[in-house]
Amino acid sequence: MNHLIAPSILAADFANLQRDVEMLNASEADYIHVDIMDGIFVPNISFGLPVCEAIYKHAKKPLDVHLMIEKPENYIQAFHDAGAATISVHYEATNHLHRVLQQIRDFGLRAGVAINPHTNVQLLEDVITDIDLVCMMSVNPGFGGQKFIEQTYTKVRRLKEIIVDAEASTLIEIDGGVNIDNAPKLLEAGADVLVAGSFVFKSDSPIDTIKELKNVGS
């Protein structure tokens, strides 16, 4: 499978949100990554359901919703109704991960699990066949534009071994500090989906930057 690109709308110009969503529609992006932060699970507040609904209204790409919030199980139906195609919840944010994964799938959505940089991938071993996507944080969650954590490559390799051993079809998504320099190494280690925010939206030509990321390794 060719790797996928999921630009993070968190880095967009919110005074021109429709324009930036339409730019992503015209690009080679595969998903639109939507970061939801509650100011409790992470030390930042991004946006909530109304903005997700507004993005969905104009989006022609599937919404890859990343819930960086406490008790995500209370909001699955709401984000389904707001247009999510994938919902990723943090391993660290819920006491009943398997139940939440089933809840997401019951709505016909792809079920994802996000893990913080300090979280061991072995903790996902018992539920890996119930996970469609692992969103591996390669920076500490909460703010865009952070420096990539080099230990991520090792974690990707370990997670890939778990997926292969379980004969699962789980995708590995990398979120944080992704750029054209580390993208080849991440793909070589086993990543399937690259999330890029600042690297895309702060570039001179976001469409060309997305194309460049899409063509890595081809």
From TrEMBL:
The top EC class, named as a word, is isomerase
Gene Ontology CC: one annotated term:
cytoplasm
Where does the secretion signal sit in this chain? none
The answer to whether keyword Metal-binding applies is: yes
Can you cite a GO biological process for this protein?
pentose catabolic process
Q: How is the cofactor bound?
A: Binds 1 divalent metal cation per subunit.
- Name the cofactor(s) required for activity, per the record: Co(2+); Zn(2+); Mn(2+); a divalent metal cation
**What family is it from?**
Belongs to the ribulose-phosphate 3-epimerase family.
Q: Name one GO molecular function term.
A: metal ion binding
PANTHER family in the record, alphabetically?
A: RIBULOSE-5-PHOSPHATE-3-EPIMERASE (PTHR11749)
Q: Which NCBIfam families match?
A: PRK05581.1-4, rpe
Superkingdom of this entry's organism? Bacteria
What protein is this chain from? Ribulose-phosphate 3-epimerase
**Catalytic activity reported:** D-ribulose 5-phosphate = D-xylulose 5-phosphate
Task: Give residues annotated as binding substrate.
Answer: 8, 66, 142-145, 175-177, 197-198
The record, for Gene3D superfamilies, names: Aldolase class I
Q: What pathway does this protein act in?
A: Carbohydrate degradation
Protein EC? 5.1.3.1
- Positions of the catalytic residues: 35 (proton acceptor), 175 (proton donor)
Chain sites annotated for binding a divalent metal cation? 33, 35, 66, 175
What InterPro entries does the database record attribute to this sequence?
A: Aldolase_TIM, Ribul_P_3_epim, Ribul_P_3_epim-like, RibuloseP-bd_barrel
Keywords, sorted A to Z = Carbohydrate metabolism, Cobalt, Isomerase, Manganese, Metal-binding, Zinc
Q: Name one Pfam family in it.
A: Ribul_P_3_epim
What this protein is reported to do is described as: Catalyzes the reversible epimerization of D-ribulose 5-phosphate to D-xylulose 5-phosphate.
